[in-house]
Amino acid sequence: DLQLNYYSQSCPRAEEIVKEQVIKLYHKHGNTAVSWIRNLFHDCMVKSCDASILLDTTKEQKSEKTSQRNFGMRNFKYIETIKEALENECPNTVSCADIVVLSARDGVVMLGGPHIEMKTGRRDSKGSYLTEVENFIPNHNDSMSLVLSRFQSVGVDTEGTVALLGAHTVGRVHCVNIVNRLYPTVDPTLDPNYANYLKGRCPSPNPVLKAVEYARNDRVTPMVLDNVYYKNILSNKGLLIVDQQLVSDPTTYPFVEKFANDNGYFHSQFAKALIILSENSPISGDKGEIRKVCRHVNK
Ligand code: HEM
Ligand SMILES: [Ca+2]
C-alpha cells in the first residue's frame, strides 16, 4: 500500500534526491517542471500511476508516447537523469512510477504552486497500454460531460476536475490543437484580440504536425502555477475548447469563478485533486517491478 515516505528505511534520501534533481533541471530547462506535471496526468489517468507512459516502443509493443493524446509531451530523457541519481545511491529501490509522482510534486513547487504531501510505494508496469490511452485521456475538443465522467472514474469530482485543468496555466499548446478555433472562421467564443494574437502564432490553417509552432497556455504568467488561467477563460482567452468549456458549462462555471477570485483556494483544491489522481490504482505487493531504467522494462 502507498504510504508517506515509503523509502524512509530503504532509501532515506530518495525524496531529497528527486527534489535536488528537479531543482537542477529546472534551472537548466525551466520547462522540465511543466513536463513533470503533465506526466503525472498522462501516466496516472491511464489505468494507474505505473510509469507505463515512460516505456519506449519495442518489438513487442508500441509506446504510449505515440498516442495522439500524448502529443507534445517532452523531457522524458531527464526522467532518466533523476533515475540515475537514485540508482547511484540506492540501486533497484525507487520506482519510476514514484519518480513520476514526486517530480510532479516538486515541479509544482518550482512553478510557485503549493507543496503537496504525496504517498509513495508504487511499482512499475511491465508493459504499456497504447490502445487504452484514448479511453482515459480526453481529447482537447471533447464535451465537458465526457471530460467530467473520465475524471469521475478515477475519483476526481467536478471541482477537482476544474482545479486540475488549471495546470493549463503553464506550458504550451501546438498550433494543430488550436487552428480549428481560428480557421476558416474564428470561434465566436474567443476574444477577438486574443484570436489575432493566436493567428500570429499560428499563421497557417494546416500546420505541420511537428513544427515548433505553438502558443503559451497563459501569456500573463506562463511559468507560474496560478489562477490567471481562470481569469483568462472568464475573459474568453481560453486556448483549447476544453478550457473554454469550463466557463460555458453551468456545472463547472461556479468553480471557475471561485478559483479566479482566490489563488490560495485554487492551490488547495489543485493539491487535493492531484493527490487523488496520483493514488489511482497503484501496483503493489509482488506485482510489477522496480525498473532499472525508466524507458524499458527489466531484462
Ligand atoms: C480534459 C483534460 C485535458 C485535455 C483534453 C488536455 C489537453 C492538452 C493539450 C491538447 C495540450 C497541448 C499539447 C501540445 O500541443 O503540445 C496540453 C498541454 C498540457 N497539459 Fe493538458 N489536458 C487535460 C488535462 C490536463 C491535466 C489534468 C493536467 C495536469 C494536472 C494537464 C497538464 C498539461 C500541461 C502541464 C501542459 C503543457 C505541456 C508542455 O508545455 O509541455 N493537462 N493538454
Ligand atoms: Ca499509466
UniProtKB/TrEMBL annotation:
Residues 1-298 form the Plant heme peroxidase family profile domain. Coiled coil: none annotated. Binds 2 calcium ions per subunit. Binds 1 heme b (iron(II)-protoporphyrin IX) group per subunit. Disulfide bonds join 11-90, 44-49, 96-294, 175-202. Heme b binds at residue 168. Ca(2+) 2 binds at residues 169, 218, 221, 226. Substrate binds at residue 138. The keyword Nuclease does not apply. The record marks 38 as: Transition state stabilizer. GO terms for biological process: hydrogen peroxide catabolic process; response to oxidative stress; response to stress; rhythmic process. It holds the Pfam family peroxidase. Its cofactor is Ca(2+); heme b. GO terms for molecular function: heme binding; lactoperoxidase activity; metal ion binding; peroxidase activity. The active site is at 42 (proton acceptor). Removal of H(2)O(2), oxidation of toxic reductants, biosynthesis and degradation of lignin, suberization, auxin catabolism, response to environmental stresses such as wounding, pathogen attack and oxidative stress. These functions might be dependent on each isozyme/isoform in each plant tissue. Belongs to the peroxidase family. Classical plant (class III) peroxidase subfamily. This is Peroxidase. The gene is LOC107826490.
